Give the backbone structure.
Amino acid sequence: EIVLTQSPGTLSLSPGERATLSCRASQSVSSRYFAWYQQKPGQAPRLLIFGASTRATGIPDRFSGSGSGTDFTLTISRLEPEDFAVYYCQQYDSSPLTFGGGTKVEIK
Amino acid sequence: EVLLLESGGRLVQPGESLRLSCAASGFTFSSYAMSWVRQAPGKGLEWVSSISGSDGRTYYSDSVKGRFTISRDDSQNTLSLQMSSLRAEDTALYYCAKRGSSYGYYFDSWGQGTLVSVSS
């Protein structure tokens, strides 16, 4: 099973700042098979990025994904008030599908 | 617009069974693999089970294999999860999720979830 470790656990930032979220895999993952989700309190997760760097439909371009192998990054270039949420990474390169533990982006 | 509406969650005792359903609309249901993903209270996401859209092949996490059965009714656009021998650690919000494309098992649409509580 591929274990995904997200860091930091919590990121305290102000609106307008840049957020950099990390996800490290316990073994190499094809960049074609990596995704990021956003989840707000009381809501279902929302797909942000798939294929490591492709934005899902309707996702603003301030969200970008990068990485390969065991290290992947989600970057939010300028935080908007609606971006404060929990973010999860997911690999779908091998079974079982696994998610990271999440990074909470909170208002500083 | 894709809509996924889960139902069936409730409070049950350990060892009991429960059946969850997910009603889908807004897309060609039979063409897509579907999955269940759960989230324990205050915790992260955990993949539970998936079923392919083409041949109905099923997949399970080790934590539920042998206890849960996923199925689909393409004539009714419905996904189901039959859960048996429920344990306290199965307590979670269960999401129905649609596979994003045939090129990868990411989830581009999610329901709002149905809550399963297992407690005596």
